[in-house]
Write a structure and sequence with these properties.
Low-confidence stretches: none
Shape: globular
CATH topology: Spore Coat Polysaccharide Biosynthesis Protein SpsA, Chain A
Helix content: 25-40%
Largest sheet: 5 strands, mixed, barrel
Oligomer: single chain
Number of domains: 1
Radius of gyration: 19 Å
Strand content: 25-35%
Structural class: alpha/beta
CATH superfamily: Spore Coat Polysaccharide Biosynthesis Protein SpsA, Chain A
CATH class: Alpha Beta
Distance between the termini: 47 Å
Number of helices: 10
């Protein structure tokens, strides 16, 4: 049966990084498994993908990441222990994921940047458009999730999409930064992208955050992409090649993002979700 390339069926989760900003906690615990309240970051990302209608999850892992596979699996001993008790409800969300999602894994043997991690995931994605979620960026919206918003945009534009938000100019050196022409409310046709520019070199203050929809030709582009900033293969450099053909959209999403790759953002997210859940 041919693949419908107008739909997003798969989501890729790059999860091979070391999480050095959270040492010593991440010496033995994958940073993607650090919890905001009672759920690990990666589970929030998988739930966002499910809300967007995606049920096939592709996770790029690395050494020391077995806890991820164990989390998205049955735990018969634990389930037997809490069966029929008040604790059983606490397992409902992860049980639903395990039951209703297909989750596959591949390893990124060398850490060569986000572009390389996405290229490593080609074996799980194949020849179809796909979403990418970076679990470090924890997003919240009282309406539609950011990925749901982007999946709907893809149905209209049928090209790669990056989620962007305005950041202070002095922080552009932390992000990929885009410039272009707005063609609709909060939708820009990208003409230029730069990875982590200093403020004086930044084409705008619109920064890419950890939500992407990519068309499958990105894999061939990544194979030809030379190492860029930091000696890594940057997804921004590959997307620029698509942008030169008018095939990249930037979307100023509706919602709130927490940079949980930083201790400050992690604490902010914890406080936000605690207050939200308590209310």
């Amino acid at each position: 049966m041919p693949i419908d390339k107008t739909k997003i069926r798969k989501c890729l989760f790059p999860a091979a990084g070391y999480g050095t900003r959270f040492l010593p906690a991440t010496k033995a615990i994958p940073k993607e498994m650090l919890p905001i309240l009672t759920k690990p970051l990666l589970q929030y990302g998988v739930e966002e993908a499910r809300e967007a209608g995606i049920s096939t999850m592709a996770i790029v892992t690395g050494r020391g990441k077995r806890a991820i596979e164990d989390h998205f699996d049955r735990s018969y001993e634990l389930e037997h222990q809490i069966d029929g008790t008040s604790k059983e409800i606490l397992m409902k969300e992860i049980r639903d994921i395990v039951k209703n999602c297909t989750i596959s894994y591949t390893r990124q043997v060398e850490m060569k940047g986000l572009g390389h991690a996405i290229l490593t995931g080609q074996t799980l994605i194949g020849d179809e458009p796909f979403a990418v979620v970076l679990a470090d960026d924890l997003c919240d919206n009282n309406g539609e999730s950011i990925l749901t918003q982007m999946v709907k945009l893809f149905e209209t534009y049928q090209c790669s999409i990056v989620a962007v938000e305005e950041v202070p100019l002095e922080e552009t050196n932390k992000y990929g930064v885009v410039a272009g022409e707005f063609i609709a409310d909060d939708v820009m046709r990208v003409t230029h992208m730069v990875e982590k520019p200093e403020s004086k070199d930044a084409p705008s203050n619109l920064a890419i955050i950890g939500r992407y929809i990519l068309t499958p030709d990105i894999f061939d582009i990544l194979k030809e992409t030379k190492p860029g900033k930091g000696g890594e293969i940057q997804i921004t450099d590959a997307l620029l090649e698509q942008a030169k053909q008018g095939k990249v959209i930037a979307y100023k999403f509706k919602g709130k993002r927490f940079d949980c790759g930083s201790v400050e953002g992690f604490v902010q997210a914890t406080n936000f979700f605690y207050t939200k859940n308590k209310g």
